[in-house]
Give the backbone structure.
Amino acid sequence: MDKKYQIFISSTYDDLKEQRDQVVKAVLQMGHLPVGMEMFNAGDQTQWETIKSHIDKSDYYIVLLAHRYGSTDPATGRSYTEAEYDYAGTQKVPRLGFMIEKGVRWTADFIETGPAKKKLDAFKKKVSIGRIVKFWDTADKLKYEVFASLSNEISVNPRIGWVRATESVSPQVADELARLSRENKELQDKIVLIGRNDALEKIISTLESQQAKIYISMDGFNATEYAFSLYEGFVIVSRAQFYPEIEQFLTPVIKLLKKNPGFEGVREIRNVSPLLTELYLLGLVVSDQAVNGERFWRLTDLGKQVYQRIAYHTSAE
């Protein structure tokens, strides 16, 4: 398994640009992932949180030290580089130190004096305690030391690291993941089906609780309003949906009406528009146009589902 590690590189910035570049090259040549936050404003809490998150995700930590302590946090007096070093220690990230050898010629502007020099010496002593520190005099020597030390640390202290998704899963785990994926799909389908059935039941309940109006003729001329359950009206329309003149299909309704007192003389259905409008508002029917140009009412996909649900209930009973 080709595992890659994330390496956090910490140092002061202006004085160690060339050296940092060589360390980055060493890490890349080893096939790992170099990261680092050389410059940040300690007063910027968001930036510090970003740096900590990078350290949290890193497998190893490298600190480079020359003759600068670096800019400090006014609140603590501690340099930002030392703050990174200390935080890596609290997170149990293995730390490797690389210090410049004594006597190496160095730019005077990049050499600390006074209190900053004392802080730098104390920091170097802290880095040296409990671990082997490597020394360097040139950027090339530093690159070699990083390559050798990091390789040894990885060998004796392997970390979690990163691997390709295709390489990180054994055949057994892959089979288990596939099984769980199938079960998850089945459960999702059941949830969708239950939700759909609940929605259909609510629509059916609405149909049963509301009334539909149609207009009938008792004498062939005058229209009289008649109301019955929207549920009954929907069933009738569902069976008559392909008839251009839906009133012609309502003979069963006329026979039913004739049995009611006061409606013995009903002759025809004059208008079912109120009924169809109610069903349209529920999204159960829609007006469409046939090839010959005639308009007719048909069930929507939702209407078909509701009708199938009603038919299922009826057959079950």
In short: Strands lie at 6-10, 33-35, 60-65, 95-100, 133-136, 211-217, 223-229, 268-271, 285-289, 295-299. The longest strand covers residues 211-217. The mean pLDDT is 80. The chain is about 50% helix and 15% strand.
